[in-house]
Design brief:
The structure is a single chain. This protein is α/β, with parallel strands linked by helices. The chain folds into two domains: 26-104 and 207-331, D-Maltodextrin-Binding Protein, domain 2 (3-Layer(aba) Sandwich), CATH 3.40.190.10; 108-202, D-Maltodextrin-Binding Protein, domain 2 (3-Layer(aba) Sandwich). It has 17 helices and ten strands. The protein has helices at residues 2-22, 38-44, 46-51, 63-72, 82-90, 136-147, 162-171, 183-188, 197-202, 215-220, 222-241, 243-246, 250-260, 267-272, 279-283, 295-309, 327-331, and strands at residues 26-31, 54-59, 77-81, 95-103, 108-113, 128-131, 156-159, 176-180, 191-196, 208-214. The chain has a five-stranded mixed sheet with strand order 2-1-3-10-4. A five-stranded mixed sheet has the order 7-6-8-5-9, with helices on both faces.
Length: 333
């Protein structure tokens, strides 16, 4: 009997010791179709190898879709434009902005279709314009219209995901679009650029794409967060160090094209339109640092207040700095 009990205890102890090997943690990560060095990290499975996590990668057509998925609890980390982040925080979502994926700079643009009769922003009156709602493009479209003396209701602004914009453009169903690559590269071929996101930034409305995480996941998985940020920083640094060499690597270009749905030949020029802040810049007041006076926090507040004035938000968060963190950037240094 004693031998039997000893044997059972040995088996139980063996199973318990082996538990970590099969009790694999899983996280769902929402991504979109922007072109950036981060796509190479996704392709190489660097995070999975370093952490042992299984990552469920889910692609979404816009920031609005991402924040809805995160609000439902289905997604723990996601790529969202600054306008979507401002919306999520204003709606009370318990998330943190922890990384600037890209400074959008001149990477998004308002393009009018050839033959639409639109040559200036004022010409958009009464026209059909496609853009993903709650996106940075949506915000900048409304801002550009306001600067030109137009209200949102002066045109038919349609909520369309990037693939829907491409299809509608091809059919001639819309007159203009404010969008990013890879769709932007396609519509430029049969359209006229009226204004870029860089032009609008110079007028005082700058945008960025960021990574957000639920506070619960970050608190429970600090090691994962540090590994993630280190990988992001390294990928961006490799690209910044020699963009031509980076986009001259067929494997890296293929990865960006695969994850974004772009054509490989469009990748180098599209990536060159973005800015990718360094690890040190991320933690400075130029981006995530600086509390209420930090650039990211002020941009979120500006965009949320603008959307409220436009009737797109019912309320604005009183303090966006509570949802902008430098914790993981600091720990990754």
């Amino acid at each position: 009997m004693k031998r039997l009990l000893a044997g059972l205890l040995f088996v139980a102890a063996t199973v318990m010791a082996a538990a970590p090997a099969w009790a694999q943690k899983t996280v769902t990560f929402a991504y979109q179709d922007m072109m950036n060095p981060w796509r190479w990290v996704q392709q190489s499975q660097e995070i999975e190898k370093a952490t042992g996590f299984k990552i469920n990668w889910r692609q979404f057509g816009g920031g609005g879709d991402v924040i809805r998925a995160m609000a439902s609890g289905d997604v723990q980390l996601g790529e969202v434009g600054s306008t979507g982040i401002a919306t999520a925080i204003s709606q009370g979502m318990d998330v943190d902005l922890f990384w600037i994926l890209e400074d959008i700079a001149g990477a998004e643009a308002l393009v009018a279709r050839n033959g639409s009769g639109v040559n200036t922003i004022a010409d958009l009156k009464g026209k059909k314009i496609g853009t993903p709602f709650v996106s940075t493009s949506h915000f900048q479209l409304l801002y550009a219209m306001q600067q030109a003396g137009l209200k949102a209701t002066d045109a038919q602004v349609l909520n369309m995901r990037p693939p829907e914009i491409a299809a509608a453009w091809g059919r001639g169903d819309i007159d203009a679009t404010f969008i990013w690559d890879p769709v932007l590269s396609n519509v430029k071929k049969t359209g006229k650029v009226l204004m870029t996101s860089g032009d609008i930034c110079k007028k005082g409305a700058c945008t960025f794409d960021g990574l957000i995480v639920t506070k619960k996941f970050a608190k429970e998985n600090p090691e994962f967060m540090v590994v993630l940020v280190k990988a992001l920083a390294k990928a961006d640094a490799d690209y910044r160090g020699n963009p031509k060499a980076w986009t001259g690597d067929p494997a890296k270009v293929a990865a960006v094209a695969k994850w974004s749905g772009a054509k490989p030949e469009d990748v180098p020029d599209a990536m060159a339109l973005y800015g990718f802040p360094s690890l040190q810049e991320q933690g400075s007041p130029a981006w995530l640092g600086g509390g209420a006076n930090g650039a990211a926090t002020k941009a979120l507040a500006q965009q949320a207040n603008f959307l409220k004035d436009q009737g797109r938000l019912t309320s604005v968060a009183p303090d966006f700095s509570k949802n902008v963190t430098t914790e993981w950037v600091t720990k990754a240094q």
